[in-house]
Amino acid sequence: MIDKSVLKKLSKIRVLIVEDDDITAYALKQSLEMYCKRVDTVYDGLSGFEYFKKNSYDIVVTDINLPELDGLEMIQLIHEISPHTPVITITSYDNSRNILGSLNQRVYTYLRKPINIEELQIEILMATKDVNNSQVALKNGFTYDKYKRVLTNSKNKEILLTKTEKDILHLLISNLNNIVSYSSIECYVWQEKSMSIEALRMRIKEIRHKTYCDIIENISGCGYRIKSSN
């Protein structure tokens, strides 16, 4: 049995469970919600993706064989807007398709049903170990706290941003040193609404004005990127 002092490290973790079997979904949620900051459960792949877009999760635990949208297809959509979010796949069908599909979608690990709860808890701990190190150092003394979603300057003063600016910044910093495409930004920030390139440029301009001019790098024809201070 895992010591409770170890499980306390899950206290900041937000988990999305996507599982169409009611009994399994309930058991997974019960095993995590007493330790994690937030645990949400949905029962099909389409709802899983919609929940992920509208909320902030540190890890996704999902079945592969799901109604509405296949689990592997859902993972692909999630990784298009958040490539580094760890995903744990669970399945009763230990076949080549599920194993290769999980590998191709860069899942963190693959667990076979029936799920060993302690094994799942350990895998979540390992997959989210960097969440507790939430401070991201940027240039010119700026620091971003991924957990609190707060940007501060060299004097430790918070930079006030609009919701859209915060969402853009969080998405880019969550994909630090990687290019985030225009379509990924539109999907994550604007969601069901249509985004114009001009509207995005205006938001980027405002973030630069409130911070420093090269905080966000424009990759022509591709998207935007934020680099770490190193």
From TrEMBL:
InterPro entries reported for this sequence: CheY-like_superfamily, OmpR/PhoB-type_DNA-bd, Sig_transdc_resp-reg_C-effctor, Sig_transdc_resp-reg_receiver, WalR-like, WH-like_DNA-bd_sf
Source domain of life: Bacteria
PROSITE patterns noted in UniProt: OMPR_PHOB, RESPONSE_REGULATORY
Keywords assigned: DNA-binding, Phosphoprotein, Transcription, Transcription regulation, Two-component regulatory system
Transcription recorded as keyword: yes
Domain called OmpR/PhoB-type: residue spans: 133-228
Ranges for domain Response regulatory: 14-128
Keyword Transcription regulation: yes
Record-level GO BP terms: regulation of DNA-templated transcription
Protein name according to UniProt: Two-component system response regulator
Organism: Halarcobacter ebronensis
